[in-house]
Specification:
heterodimer; A: 588 residues; Nucleotidyltransferase, domain 5; DHBP synthase; 3 domains; eight-stranded mixed β-sheet; B: mainly alpha; Ferritin; 1% strand; extended
Chain lengths: 588, 242
């Protein structure tokens, strides 16, 4: 059975193709369109998925959209009615937005793909999140928790999932509904702190480490707990439900002070900068406390050992680590793409296993479902630009790369299919030595062009992770997809300065050989030279751009930044003394 | 036309906060343009053009940084809550200000023609803005510095167009001019339609919705707080959009 899953129109649109219950391809539209967080209908992603399998749209048995558009429209309209007449300026905007294309997805998908409307199915948003989290995890039964800004009405759901020869069930038995939302709370602070909503949430998490949660009581006023263990938002402090212009109210500003302008630098040495860091630390703490409480209750109710966590909130690695440590669950699974892009895969899996009742299949435990990189394409481009390049076997490539890294060079490392999800897990990564804080500053200044308070992640062989990091039971598994933040052991912090955040933690990735064999060997080769088999691993992109996908994009990133070596497949390109584009007089 | 618009431009650029916001807007336009050029460099099969596009892209990013820095300096004295970027700035530089570049594989000729016209327009605009900022010497210096790069961009796009499409260069330039006009019309039409839509919807909001709003608010009061139990039967059927 051939099932295409789609997510689109809000942020991170994507497509994922299942054939006989297994993923064949899955990719975010942004990786192909090169527009970060591209929310457009994912036509390029669909084409990639179909081309990978050699299919035409007519060959598909079903196309599954990741949410129910009319239910979403119902929520938008009801919210506007409830905030009448304050919502007068949001109403035209929302109606034009919804009624333009978003509400008519059956017709849109049918016309774009040229297929019958009968083949088009719709899951609920949080069902898609739940399926993406549970059906990709190596577990037979687990509690399921999903949390994000909002889907149709639900903002957080809880339940259980079971799969096996007898069939698959996903039973979400309770939910918290809009406007009461952990995701909206965090996004409101994201906006207040001057970052882009749906993009800058991880900056808030990074900034939180610099602050003290001394405004946690104020944040708790915004999100009082209900007697049944849930929460509600005190809407006096918010405006996201009544206007499109601002998500926080004047009362919010009275409580926390003036917001940060999006272009104002964050000076952590100033009182204002510290106030913003304290705000971030406070909302982070409150978010964690609530999630831990809800997860603990879920553990008590289900008695299950595993928890699968999906939705955009599951990208918060600090909260994930606390859930693992404090909720009672033994293992916590977060998929490679817990956000909306992952819903494309989740929707397809939900339809396959539950709607069509197809037999359970174990999925490969990785997220490399995107387009493959072509080393020959890189060799051609580098040759045209007269850059030194070589096609080498794996052993020589690993030895040369380990030497480069040991000498302080930065490597852009591309191999195999690109990652499905926001993390670079070793197939589209920038690698560097993790020992020196100067390396972190160099990466921020010469390559990533981003705020200096943001940390970089380490990658470590799974079997050695415990030596360098304080991992709770289940921590190594959570770190497989870089989903948890854990303390660096104090004795290693100085020697891992480039990847140790200001609070002594790191968002590490544990690597097993089956996951990425060449990178695993590179870690060990580097360890033989440096004494520590750990590398700094960050996504291969420049600020404001999506992670690179193909060799030409890797090459342009290499040319425009301070990367020293570019590897694509078995092709290795070095930067000459000058690889900047030629000067004007040379060209014209 | 330029002479007639001079007083308007002087008025637009007179206020420091407005000047700062416009420069921040220009920074975004330049950064977007840089990304388009990066994309062009990734798609072209022509090695020489690839190098030129990359050089052009890094110029655009540098311009974005310069505009952003100067914009921030100008806005330093204003509380951030009082300032917000205009969603659409019709007076943004012509370079991708009035239409979007269409970067496609194997279409260097049309892209070069488009870039040439855009850069020429941007050079004209920046020259006008440099005059319009009056006594603000530092902002004028920003425009003058960027203007030098724009001249290079204008020249290389023209000479490369002659190289890659020697016979069709004139036609491509005319096509690009018409394309810009058509897109400008489309943007105007969309903006006008949006305005009309806003007026009609706002009228409907106040005329049709009050009763439903009252009912909806009453219903909201009866809704329990906290967890809602979900019926397991509620979402079995995937065929419906509801």
């Amino acid at each position: 059975m051939k099932i295409l899953g789609l997510s689109a129109h809000y942020h991170d649109s994507a497509a994922a193709l299942l054939i006989d219950g297994l993923p064949v391809a899955a990719v975010q539209e942004e990786r192909l369109s090169r527009r970060k967080n591209d929310a457009a209908f994912p036509i390029a992603a669909i084409e990639h998925c179909l081309d990978t399998a050699g299919l035409e749209p007519d060959d598909l048995d079903a196309v599954v959209f990741y949410e129910r558009p009319m239910l979403k429209f119902d929520r938008v309209l009801t919210t506007l009615l409830r905030t009448f007449p304050r919502s007068f300026s949001a109403f035209p905007h929302a109606m034009k937005n919804m009624l333009g294309e978003k509400a008519w997805m059956r017709g849109v998908i049918g016309s774009r793909l040229g297929i019958s409307g009968r083949k088009i199915l719709f899951t609920e948003h949080h069902q898609s999140h739940a399926a993406a989290a549970f059906l990709t995890a190596p577990t037979r039964s687990a509690a399921i928790l999903t949390a994000d800004g909002v889907g149709e009405w639900a903002t957080l759901t809880a339940g259980t999932g079971r799969r096996g020869p007898e069939g698959t069930t996903i039973a979400l038995d309770r939910e918290i509904r809009f406007p009461h939302s952990l995701g909206m709370l965090y996004s409101t602070f994201t906006a207040y702190l001057g970052f882009a909503v749906n993009e800058g949430e991880y900056k808030v998490m990074g900034l939180a480490a610099y602050g003290r949660p001394n405004m946690a009581d104020e944040v708790r006023k915004l999100i009082p707990r209900t007697p049944d263990g849930a929460f509600r938002l005190n809407l006096d402090y918010f405006e996201f439900h009544s206007t499109a212009k601002r998500s926080f109210s004047d009362k919010f500003i009275e409580l926390f002070g003036p917001p940060r302008g999006p272009y104002a630098p964050i000076d952590l040495a100033s009182a204002e900068g510290r106030r913003f860091a304290d705000c971030a630390a406070s909302v982070q703490l409150v978010l964690e406390d609530i999630l831990v409480d809800i997860a603990r209750d879920l553990h008590r109710r289900t008695g299950l050992a595993d928890l699968c966590f999906g939705g955009g909130v599951a990208l918060n690695g600090v909260a994930n680590a606390r859930i693992l440590r404090e909720s009672g669950f033994e293992r916590l699974f977060v998929p490679t793409s817990p956000g909306d892009a992952g819903c494309a895969l989740g929707a397809a899996l939900f339809a396959d296993r539950i709607h069509f009742g197809n037999p359970d299949r174990d999925l490969p435990d990785h997220g490399f479902w995107g387009p493959e990189v072509d080393g020959a394409a890189l060799a051609r481009i580098a040759g045209e630009d007269e850059l030194p390049f070589a096609t080498v076997d794996d052993a020589a490539l690993i030895a040369a790369s380990a030497d480069d890294l040991h000498a302080g060079r930065i490597i852009a490392w591309m191999e195999g299919g690109c990652e499905f999800g926001p993390r670079a897990l070793g197939h589209r990564s920038l690698l560097a030595a993790p020992h020196d804080a100067a390396m972190r500053d160099r990466l921020n200044r010469d390559i990533k062009y981003r705020e200096e308070f943001r940390p970089f992640a380490p990658i470590v062989p799974e079997e050695l992770a415990d030596l360098y990091f304080e991992l709770p039971p289940g921590g190594a598994r959570l770190a497989r997809f870089m989903s948890g933040v854990f303390p660096v052991r104090p004795e290693w912090r100085e020697r891992l300065a480039a990847v140790t955040h200001v609070d002594g933690t790191a968002r590490l990735q544990t690597l097993s050989r089956d996951f990425a064999p060449r990178l695993y060997d590179l870690l060990h080769a580097y360890g033989e030279r440096s004494g520590i088999p750990i590398l700094l691993n960050t996504s291969l992109n420049i600020a404001g751009e999506p992670i690179v996908c193909n060799a030409a994009e890797g090459y342009s990133t290499f040319c425009r930044s301070g990367i020293d070596v570019l590897v694509a497949g078995n092709v290795r390109v070095e930067k000459r003394a000058r690889t900047e584009a030629p000067r004007e007089e040379e060209l014209v | 036309m330029q002479v007639l618009l001079k007083p308007l431009q002087r008025w637009v650029w007179r206020d420091a906060a407005r000047r700062g916001l416009r420069l921040l807007r220009f920074a975004e336009v330049e950064a977007d343009g840089g990304r388009d050029l990066v994309r062009a460099s990734e798609l072209t099969e022509d090695a020489r053009l690839r190098r030129l596009y990359l050089r052009h892209a890094s110029d655009e990013r540098r311009h974005a940084d310069i505009f952003r820095q100067r914009g921030m300096e100008l806005l330093h004295a204003y509380p951030p809550g009082d300032l917000s970027l205009p969603e659409n700035d019709w007076l943004a530089p012509g370079e991708r200000g009035l239409d979007d570049v269409n970067v496609e594989s194997g279409r260097d000729g049309p892209l070069l023609a488009f870039l040439h016209l855009s850069e020429r327009q941007a050079a004209r605009d920046f020259s006008v803005y440099a005059d319009a900022v009056g006594g603000d010497g530092r902002t004028r210096a920003v425009f003058e510095r960027i203007l030098r790069d724009e001249e290079f961009h204008m020249n290389y796009t023209r000479s490369e167009l002659a190289r890659v499409s020697p016979r069709k260069q004139g036609a491509l330039l005319w096509k690009a001019r018409l394309g810009r006009l058509w897109k400008a019309y489309l943007r105007f039409a969309v903006a006008l339609a949006g305005l009309i839509g806003t007026v009609v919807l706002t009228l409907q909001y106040f005329l049709l919705l009050p009763l439903f709003a009252w009912i909806s608010r009453r219903a909201a009061k009866r809704e329990p707080e906290g967890w809602r139990m979900i019926s397991p039967e509620s979402a079995r059927d995937l065929r419906g959009q509801y």
